[in-house]
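Hello again, I could really use a second opinion on something today. I've been staring at a protein lately and its backbone has me curious. Can you walk me through what the tokens say about the fold? Take your time with it, there's no hurry, and the full record follows here:
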Amino acid sequence: MPIPVSWSEIAIRLLCAFLAGVVIGLNRSEHGRVAGLRTSVLVCLAACVAMIQVNLLLPLAGRPPNSFVMNDLMRLPLGILSGMGFIGGGAILRRDSRVLGVTTAATLWFLTVLGLCFGGGQIGLGLIGAALAMMVLAGLRAVEDRLKQDKRAQLSIVTSSAGPDESEIRALLLEQPFEIISCGFAAADAGSGRQWSYGLRWRAETAESRIPDAVSQLTARTGVIRIEWNQQGQ
């Protein structure tokens, strides 16, 4: 980071930070994320301006040890990175068992680092970082969707006395790639409906969200009154 800095160089740094925020922010807005275009641009520009301010204050840092004021200019960008934790934390949401916004929070933190790079004059490093960020956000999404992961669901079945019993239901579930991790049963009396509940686990692609064939087969069984299928997020 050079000590003398011209206004033309400051303009280049701000422009690079702006463009990086726009490119990455468009990707976030396109996917409907909480932190979209404007948030991304503001975060990257804020970090860039903070680092430019550090650069402008560098000539004031050379003070003798007995000076009344000692400038530790690197505390400013460190404070910016720490403060981003609050904004990133606000982008993370929890809905039941699903946690959303972690990638958005990481993107904001990374944009802060890019802004610090541009503001400090490391234009090449910032551009490489921005290109890598776009590769991760756009390119690895397809790879991530094809990875197989553990999925969980809760299956609830209400049957009449003429409906399938527990052994039939369990056999049908185990024909599919399901692992039964919990089960439950409820009935008021012998002549009323019976309710079976199962906690299931299986492996499938991340983007897979269709209703399994076993659930459709159970729906067609005689004596099945109601079926509830609730797939839990990861």
